[in-house]
């Protein structure tokens, strides 16, 4: 996330809808300070978030949070390969064994390379793009992460 330090130079001399923030003129419609450098509110997705010292504050739902605190994604899937290594989207893997493709006579050979596109909560828990082939849902326990 981009962080920009600035001084708030708002004064009553400026028109109500115009606030100068660090030299960037930001005009808004709701009477809140709008800057392009701050993230939207994580609760209501408002773009009128403003900064107060280390905190970010949403004027629409009154949510306050510290952008420097890491947000723990409780929905993150823990998916491991055949060797117990954590897998993430974008990881390159190889097949740890020959796999028969359901509903066809095709066999994916051990050592076939693939890239994980998406982690999925299910029986086949990784959505992969095979090297030189199509997309395939695989089971993480049948792949090995490439180092
Ligand atoms: Zn909000």
Automatic annotation (TrEMBL):
Pfam families: YjdM, Zn_Ribbon_YjdM. NCBIfam families: phnA. InterPro entries: YjdM, YjdM_C, YjdM_N. Residues 37-66 form the Protein YjdM N-terminal domain. Belongs to the YjdM family. This is Alkylphosphonate utilization operon protein PhnA. Residues 79-145 form the Protein YjdM C-terminal domain.
